[in-house]
Structure formats: C-alpha cells, structure tokens
Amino acid sequence: MTTPEGGFRATVLTLYPEMFPGPLGISLAGKALQDGAWSLETVQIRDFATDKHRMVDDTPAGGGAGMVMKPDVLARAVDHVADSRPKLFMSPRGKPLSQARVRELSSGPGAIVLCGRFEGVDERLIEARGFEEISIGDYILSGGETAAIVVLDAIVRLLPGVMGNVLSGETESFETGLLEHPHYTKPQEWEGRRIPDVLLSGNHGAIDKWRRAEAERLTRERRPDLWEVHKTPQEK
Ligand code: SAH
C-alpha cells in the first residue's frame, strides 16, 4: 500500500486492521486503490500499548458496563501518523455524515479515521487531538470500522477519475438537495409493468421535466426534512 503523490490518503486507526480494505478493495474503490487514485494504510492501535498485557481499554470512570479505550495508547497511535489531514472519529454522537461533508473531504489531502470499540474512547483524547465526530446514522454498530468503510467509500467515489460517468454523480440523491428520480431499463414491458411512456418519447425536455417532478414527489413523500429545506418560497 504505497502513497501516491497528491492522491487522497486514508489512515485508519483500528484494533481490527484485517477488516481493511474489505469492501474498499472491490469494484470502483478497489480499482482506484490499485490505480493509486487513493491510498489506504491501517494502524493497529494495540501496537502502541506499552504494558505487558498490551491493554488498550480499561474500566469506565464512575462505574458501569463495558470498557473505554485508553487516551494514552490512542494518543501515541494518533501522534505516530498525524499531519495536516482532518482527524475523524466514528461516533454515534457525531454530526450525521452528509454528502456536502463527503465532497469537502474528497477534495482534501485525506483523512485519519479513528474506529472505536467497546463503549467508545476517553473523551479527553477526542478533545486533546481535535477529532471531528462523525455518525453514519442513528443506530449503534459494534465498532467504528464499518462506519469508516462507509465514509471512505462515499469519499473515494468522488475522487477524480474514479467514477466513469461523472454526470451520474451530479444528479444523484442529495447532490441536488432532492432524492433521485426512479430508473428503468429494458425490457420495455416486464411482468405487465411498462416503462413510463415519456422516457421512451425521445423528448429530452419532457424527460427532464418528468424526472424533476418525480424527484420532488419522492422527496416530499419520503423526506419531508429535505423537502422543507429545498422547496421554493411559493411551495412553502
Ligand atoms: N457507547 C456508545 C456506543 C459504542 S459502539 C454510545 O452509546 O454512544 C462502539 C464504537 O462503534 C463507537 O465508539 C464508534 O466508533 C462506533 N459506532 C457505533 N455506532 C456508530 C455510528 N452510528 N456511526 C459511527 N460510528 C459508530
């Protein structure tokens, strides 16, 4: 895993480096990794434990269930790789990941991604090293690794040259503030269901109009939160 000059550099701090590249080694992201459009390095947090049992976690101050990852061990791991790249801590308490943040990250030098396990990490580490907490949704995973894979997958597909069809990235859900319109492909009729006539009309003005209307309908029905932000003053 070499670092291409100028490419997006991801460093993942984890107790389970064998989970990487995992899905990121496949298809678009994997091809881009092979081609050097981005690089991925993992750091085994346990390598920075100094006691004879190589402990990375300890019991929570104040009592309670579970274990907390130790700030001293994590700090050594972070300081080993830290540079000017943003430091991200995967965390259900974090700001929900947005396509806007993904786009910003994809135009930067890379990211240092910390994956929690157990109950999480000592709060002082997050503060002292300036981690940005990012959540991938309102549910609890067993560890930050799958969240890190989600974040990196979303970033990598936006890197220059990774997606063959650049246009498809720009009409997709969230890029326009709307959910995307429905898609169809051949056959024209399948199980008695026909592709909407307008899509077969060859009239590109009418097709654009239909797609726009469908995108708005779906957003209104499924994501009133997005619609509230998007709709024009007349629609409000
Ligand atoms: N006790 C914590 C959950 C710990 S889950 C709480 O209640 O908030 C263990 C680790 O999984 C976390 O430290 C985090 O790194 C990761 N994780 C779990 N859910 C996540 C989510 N929705 N988004 C991002 N990371 C998550």
Automatic annotation (TrEMBL):
Catalytic reaction(s) noted: guanosine(37) in tRNA + S-adenosyl-L-methionine = N(1)-methylguanosine(37) in tRNA + S-adenosyl-L-homocysteine + H(+)
Domain (tRNA methyltransferase TRMD/TRM10-type) ranges: 9-228
Keyword Methyltransferase: yes
EC numbers: 2.1.1.228
Pfam assignment, any one: tRNA_m1G_MT
Superkingdom to which the source organism belongs: Bacteria
Subcellular location field: Cytoplasm
Gene Ontology biological-process annotations: tRNA N1-guanine methylation
Keywords from the UniProt entry: Cytoplasm, Methyltransferase, S-adenosyl-L-methionine, Transferase, tRNA processing
GO MF annotation: an example: tRNA (guanine(37)-N1)-methyltransferase activity
Enzyme class: transferase
Residues noted as binding S-adenosyl-L-methionine in the record, renumbered to the chain: G116, I136, G137, D138, Y139, I140, L141
GO cellular component terms given for this protein: cytosol
CDD domains membership: TrmD-like (cd18080)
NCBIfam families attached to this UniProt entry: PRK00026.1, trmD
Family statement: Belongs to the RNA methyltransferase TrmD family.
Description of how the protein assembles with itself and partners: Homodimer.
Function description: Specifically methylates guanosine-37 in various tRNAs.
Protein name as catalogued: tRNA (guanine-N(1)-)-methyltransferase
